[in-house]
Amino acid sequence: MAQPCAVIGIGQTKHAKARADLSMTGLVREAAVRALEDAGLTWRDIDALVIGKAPDAFEGVMQPELFLADALGAAGKPMLRVHTAGSVGGSTAIVGAHLIESGIHERVLSVAWEKQSEGNAQWGLAGGRSGGIGAGGAFAPYVRSYIERTDAPEYIGWQVAVKDRLNALKNPYAHLQLADITLEKVKESPMLWDPLHFLESCPSSDGACAMVLGTEAAAAASPNPPAWILATAVRSEPSTFPGRDAVRPQAGVDCAHDVYRQAGITDPRAQIDVAELYVPFSWYEPMWLEGHDIAGPGEGWKMVDRGDTEITGSFPVNPSGGVLSSNPIGASGMLRMAEAALQVRGMAGEHQVEGARVSLGQAYGGNAQYFSMAIFSSSPGRPGA
Amino acid sequence: MPATDIAIVGWGQTPAYRRSDLTEPQLCMTANLEAMAHAGIDRRDIGFTCSGSCDYLTGGPFAFVANLDAAGAWPPISESHVEMDGAWALYEAWVRLQHGDIDLALVFASGKSSPSNRLELYPQQLDPYYLEPLGLDPLSLAAMQARSLLEAGKATERDFAEVASRSLRAAAMNPKATVSGEKDADELLAADYACAPLRAHDVSAVADGAAAVILATAARARQLAEHPVFIRGIEHRIEVHQPGMRDLTTSSSAAEAARRAGLADRPVDVAELAAAFSPQEIILRQALGLGEDVTVNPSGGALTGDPVMATGLVRIIEAARRVADGSAGRALAHASNGQCLQHNLVCILEGA
Fold first, then answer.
1. CA–CA distance, A175 with A179 (Å, rounded to integer)
2. Does B17 touch chain A (CB under 8 A)?
């Protein structure tokens, strides 16, 4: 019963440690204006807006979309504010897609953002209390558990850290531009949360991402090729309970199987050409490859080791440089969706994966308990084997 | 426009407590279990869950994460959350049900305002560059709106008191209300100003509480409920943020949402309006064109119990209750977000 939905416009900011040149308002506008330009549209053409970001405490503002409404041309239109922890950027894109698929709107603008330089994200991540262990502190035990479970060599994490930073050199929007990064430098960088070194961790960024989503008719009228959304799914599970597998959370497994089923994907490794996965710490690349059944148990790190996940590899992951290179938290999930969509539109510039036709965008959040995923395609039909 | 008819088949709500010692997940659990029991369903039947809450009320980032426990998120569930009143969570769930692949959704909303101070908290909801530094608190903003209404000749202070008097009297029949009483306008007008021209009775009783609604596709609704309450229209619109750029004596966004939701198709018998200040009820009545024959806020409204973030969803429940029991053939429910009615949602409900 759902109508087809396409991504017809994408925009993002230049991500940086501090975009001191922009207000929060200016930040979201920079991304939104670029998305509208890509779609060949003006503010007037947008029927509804969906805005997402991680906790408001990061910037010390409460429900900031209320004041951002003015600058985003929302007056007189419907506007929704989504918040699903770190997965929020992905969820925000998906809620926008639902507004098209349900037949309610023709063109929707989804915007996700975070301006982390305005506040202290570590304080925010600690629930507004002092003495927090940060996201790395929360995830390091899961990473350690993955390593013990699969007997992965410790250099796998360094390899991912180097690969994503080298990919970021091809992406002019990426925050980190570390041209001289090497395995040795990652290894020698300070140990933050064993086994995660400083250079295996994401930065803290200011940034925004915007997507214009539209119907078949809107896609036909747009100047650039669309990315068709073949499937979307979200899953959540409680933060913690006895017996929970935090390395391979069931919500992530279920979410992946849901999008594969909807998109007619029976062999994700073969049928997906490129994936943008939410990898804020290096080890999450092999962990999600296994956690989403792209690789079998213990096979994810071998894909990394073989170079399969390089841009030129058999299953490229995060050609944009990923969260490891830019992390405006609320926007990071939408950046995964946007980059996955750019790839199948053939508009990813220097980090374009040759011949990408089908892509996966994924975001996760909370205590690795919130997941949002989408499958994008260069054509509206289901992919072949 | 979507073709799929969606109905409300169950609801639950906690009382609007002045202060509750229950945690937010406990409040949500109470409402959710009540709603599922009312609909006669098990949580495993639910295809999509959406909740509404605001981190800032309890002062803890990620406060909503703990509320997942109240949704019974194991095995994992398909779920989303809006940092808005639960009425917008209901909107998102209504959109999701249009896809046709699922037939039941759980919507819940919660707020614990007791740990925070309204006057200190809500300035942080204003534009941080141009408004928040002015120290504008919600009471002052509402008073400014009330003043503009008086100066435009659209209402008098007695009109405000009449709204409060009627609401307090209605609340006596509502076991969930925070405050109620028998006081006529003269008695209320004798009180000092809290923030002129507003008196204490013109300001909502902010409360802790939660509410939940079960939505079903039409086919499923007819199996579950003898009298399902159908959503005939649901729309929302936002206005510019800067109060100086708006005509505060009316609500163009509420009027537009109501027009799109089909308010004019047939008269409504009942309207539940999320007016946190008595002048806002007058503004909304005028903007929506509700005549004297429409019963407004038979529950006592937000004025007599305002579990912020659940208040709008409670309006939908109160309207649905009256359609289900036959006391209204058609009812309007309204929700609001932001200061001075910046963002408004209108939902039109009818029986089969």
1. 12
2. no
Q: Quick one: pLDDT at residue A121? A: 82
pLDDT digits (tens, 9 = 90+) for B253-278: 999 999 999 999 999 999 999 999 99
Distance CA A357, CA A339 (A): 13
Neighbours of B107 (CB within 10 A): 29
The answer to whether the Cβ–Cβ distance between B101 and A74 falls below 8 Å is no
Strand partners, A372: A234, A363
Helices B252-261 and B278-288: angle between axes, nearest 10 degrees: 50
Amino acid code (one letter) for B157: E
Chain A: residue nearest B127 by CA? Answer: A67
In 10 A of CB A364, how many CB atoms? 30
Cα–Cα distance measured from residue A292 to residue A278, given in angstroms and rounded to the nearest whole number: 12
Query: Which residue from A62, A70, A85 is facing B62, i.e. has the nearest CB?
Result: A85
Residue pLDDT, tens place only, A132-187: 888 899 999 999 999 999 999 999 999 999 999 999 999 999 999 999 999 999 99
Task: Indicate yes or no: CB of A70 within 8 angstroms of CB of B78.
Answer: no
**Interface-testing mutation among B64, B117, B241, with chain A (most A C-beta atoms within 10 A):** B241
Which of B238, B341, B347 to probe by mutation at the A interface, max A CB count within 10 Å? B238
Partners of residue A255 in chain B, C-beta under 8 Å: 76
Contact predicate A334/A154, CB 8 Å? no
What pLDDT was estimated at residue A126?
78
- The Cα of B58 is separated from the nearest Cα of chain A by a number of Å equal to 11
**Nearest-CA distance A175 → chain B (Å):** 25
CA-based nearest distance A185→chain B, Å: 35
Instruction: Give the CA distances from residue A186 to residues A156, A190, A281, A306, A327, in Å, rounded to whole numbers and listed in that order.
Output: 11, 9, 12, 19, 18
CA-nearest of A338, A55, A37 to A209 is: A338
Asked whether the predicted pLDDT for residue A296 surpasses 60, the reply is: yes
Minimal Cα–Cα distance from A184 to chain B, Å?
37
As a whole number of angstroms, the distance between CA B138 and CA B119 comes to 6
Please tell me which residue of chain B has the smallest CA distance to A90: B80
What whole-number distance in Å separates Cα of residue A59 and Cα of residue A326? 18
Q: Of B286, B260, B262, whose CA–CA distance to B341 is shortest?
A: B286
Q: Is A23 exposed, middle or buried (0-12, 13-18, 19+ CB in 10 A)?
A: middle
Residues in chain B within 8 Å Cβ distance of A215? none
Choose the closest CB to A2 out of B60, B61, B99.
B99
Look up residue A131 and give its two tokens. 């003495």
* B61/A125 Cβ within 8 A: yes
For chain B (length 352 residues), average pLDDT per consecutive 10? 85 98 97 98 97 90 92 96 98 97 97 92 94 92 98 98 98 98 97 98 98 97 95 98 96 98 97 98 98 97 98 98 97 97 98 87
CA distance, residue A165 to nearest chain B CA (Å): 30
Distance CA A200, CA A280 (A): 8
**Packed helices B86-97 and B311-324: angle between N→C axes, nearest 10 degrees:** 60
Q: What is the ipTM of this complex?
A: 0.97
Give A80's contacts in chain B (Cβ within 8 Å). 82, 84, 88, 91-92
Are A95 and B64 inside 8 Å of each other by CB?
no
Mean pLDDT along residues A252-279: 98
Interface contact flag, A236 B124, Cβ < 8 Å:
no
End-to-end CA distance of chain B: 20
Q: What is each CA distance from B164 to A142, B254, B286, in whole angstroms?
A: 56, 21, 17
**DSSP state letter for A315:** S
